[in-house]
Amino acid sequence: MSKFIRYFACLLTTWVLCSFYFPRMIHHFNKNVNQSKSDLILHFTATVDGEPLRFRKNYTNAFNESFAVEKFKFYFGKARLIDQNAHQESPLGGDDYALIDFTDSTSCSLKLSFRPGKYNAIQFLLGVDSIDNVSGAQTGALDPSKGMFWTWNSGYVMAKLEGSSPQSNQPAHTIAYHIGGFRQPDNTARIINLLFPDKSDLETKASQTHVLFITADLKYWFDGKNPLHIKEIPTCTTPGKLARSISDNYAGMFSISRIIN
């Protein structure tokens, strides 16, 4: 009987200690984790040759072709902060992908949490990697209802630009560039590396919030390493060599305009 009492007393003591101290330990751990991270807000803006993008407004590309934009969106994912030693720091938690849609201003600001440190560049994937392309329709930012999934091709559109141009020979003079494809040699996902302005460092500190303003300039869709003339190519909506060449163009459209510490 005394053995049973001792055993019961031991269990009771263990239960009391766990119920009292364990929640405090978890709270203390979570508190330390929260205090040891810094938040980085990425804010995306769209321009056309440095001028703020206005939907349905007429612009002129480098080849004197007029065009107006109605849709402009792309996938952002796999973000990394990079220090001067090329060490990469991944976000703490969060989704792998976000859909930046310039018709929806709420989608153009993202908050990522990183461990404090001194960084001089940011890296991200423009598009969706091959693994997620072969995983079928998914949820969240990769939900097919976002209009960025080819059900007929079982793959994602990495970036989309739609509008109109007098130079287009399509019905209603539409232009449509739905750039996708994840199989080599025509993979259109692009890794983007952006140095911070003036080669300065971003020193993130615990419990601080920093804001990074990233500009996407549409002129690079047309005036890049592979010149795109609307008169000749008003649409591209399938994977292949053309989609790959357009993705090589717009991979250069990003720049960091400023940082707020």
Q: Give me the Rg, rounded.
A: 24 Å
Structural class: alpha+beta
Average predicted local confidence, pLDDT: 87
* Beta-strand fraction estimate: 35-45%
Helix fraction bin: 10-25%
Sketch the major β-sheet. Answer: 10 strands, mixed
Distance between the termini: 68 Å
Shape: globular
Number of helices: 4
Query: Which spans have pLDDT < 50 for at least 5 consecutive residues?
Result: 14-18, 20-34
Number of domains: 2
The total count of strands amounts to 17
- Helix-strand pattern, N to C? HEEEEEEEEEHEEEEEEHEHE
Short summary:
This protein is of the alpha+beta class and 261 residues long.
Structure description:
This protein has 261 residues and is α+β, with helices and mostly antiparallel strands. The protein has two domains: 35 residues; 223 residues, no CATH class. It has four helices and 17 strands. The strands form three sheets. Strands 3, 4, 5, 6, 9, 10, 11, 12, 13 and 16 form a ten-stranded mixed β-sheet that branches. Strands 1, 2, 7, 15 and 17 form a five-stranded mixed β-sheet that branches. The chain has a two-stranded antiparallel ribbon with strand order 8-14. It starts with a helix and ends with a strand. The relative contact order is 0.18.
